[in-house]
Amino acid sequence: MSTLALSRHSWWPWARRAAVWGFFALIAWLLVRQARAIDWEDVFDAIRALPATALLAAAALAAGSFALYSTYDLLGRHLTRHRLGTGTVMGVTFISYAFNLNLGSLVGGVAFRYRLYSRLGLANHTITRVLGFSMLTNWLGYLVVAGAAFCFWPMALPPEWKIDSEGLRILGAVLLTAALAYLVLCATSRGRAWRVRGHEFRMPGFAMALLQLAMSCANWSLIGGVIWFLLQGQVAYVQVLAVLLVAAVAGVITHVPAGLGVLEAVFVTLLSHQVPQAQLLGALLAYRGLYYLLPLAVATLGYLVTEARARRLRTPLRRGR
Predict the structure, then answer these.
(1) What are phi and psi of 231, to 5 degrees?
(2) Residue 194, helix vs strand vs coil
(3) Which string of b and e fits 259-289 if b means at least 16 CB within 10 Å?
(4) Which of 88, 122, 209, 316 is the S-S candidate for 117 at Cβ 3.0 to 4.6 Å?
(5) The model's pTM
(6) φ, ψ for residue 195 (rounded to 5)?
(7) Per-residue pLDDT of the chain (321 residues; tens, 9 = 90+)
(8) 202 - beta bridge partners?
(9) Are strands 193-196 and 199-202 parallel, antiparallel or unpaired?
(10) E strands within 126-238?
(11) φ and ψ at 17, to 5 degrees?
(12) Exposed, middle or buried: residue 119 (CB in 10 Å: 0-12, 13-18, 19+)?
């Protein structure tokens, strides 16, 4: 290897690491700057003023959303024919989803699934298929719900975003077309295998694709309902859902764990002209408590129980060797 190649090979990891930390430092600075401009006493007053009925309704929808998402991996079980029980699969999915929301997809959605499923006896290629199909289910619903919201109920975006209502309609149409293309592919190519980075994926049938679509659309709609109830109907439900969908993609793009600050920034930018900032942030903090932190506490306990169960399952195997 040449001296130039060695030199480049030695400095590139450091440069990449510095760029990543620089990006996170910039995000942290922006969040601190934004946080200092907020009257937090008004925000906490807004949280305390939330009616019990709104909190209970939001909590019920959040529980429904988690219960529904926890069934996603059951679709993967149907495709792979593995034999883990329904409760076990839903438990692993719930735990992974809660950690995914709070720590990011690589840690929660991927690492936790691989660890828990492998300790419960699934092979890596089976876990990969289950994980891939679950992620596909989630984002298929996003395409349809976001496509419909953007196409038929476009919201007014700030001028600096460089996209107007017409551009949003076009984006919505593109998203709907992509979802339709998937359905057509499932209807015409059932059982066809695709290889992605050495992993094989088989196309589900049309009925399974429709089930994916129904489950994921319902889940995204439930999440939007959580925030809508906490905002006490001050903004139309469709608009709240559309803003949530924009924030979801912004969180994925920025790779900030839990979308911390990103969700709030998008909502404040797009809805602060309709809802006082303190009430808006109060509702979003309540949403984080109900949809992020409370499930995380339950998932942490569930993770410890699952680890203990997996350890008990392995003990007889070791004794039998």
Answers:
(1) -85, 0
(2) strand
(3) bbbbbbbbbbbbbeeebebbbbbbbbbbbbe
(4) 122
(5) 0.80
(6) -110, 125
(7) 444 444 445 665 676 566 546 545 554 554 555 555 555 576 778 888 899 999 999 999 999 999 999 999 999 999 999 999 999 999 999 999 999 888 877 777 888 899 999 988 899 989 999 999 999 999 999 999 999 998 888 776 666 666 667 778 888 899 999 999 999 999 987 666 666 666 666 788 899 999 999 999 999 999 999 999 999 989 999 999 999 998 887 766 655 555 566 788 888 888 888 888 889 999 999 999 999 989 999 999 988 887 777 677 665 545 545
(8) 193
(9) antiparallel
(10) 193-196, 199-202
(11) -65, -40
(12) middle
CB atoms within 10 A of CB 176: 18
The rounded Cα 261 to chain-centroid distance in angstroms is 15
Positive or negative, the CA dihedral 237, 239, 245, 251 is: negative
Residue count (the chain)? 321
User: Token pair of 16, please?
Assistant: 């990449």
Q: Which tokens in the block code for residue 55?
A: 């909190």
- Two structure tokens written together for 296: 């995380």
Residue 70, both tokens: 């926890």
* Tokens standing for residue 279: 């009430």
Closest by alpha carbon to 172, among 146, 207, 134, 198? 146
- Taking the C-alpha atoms of residue 235 and residue 276, their distance in angstroms, rounded to an integer, is 11
Buried b (16+ CB within 10 A) or exposed e, 137-162: bbebbbbbbbbbbbbebbbebeeeee
- The one-letter amino acid at 315: T
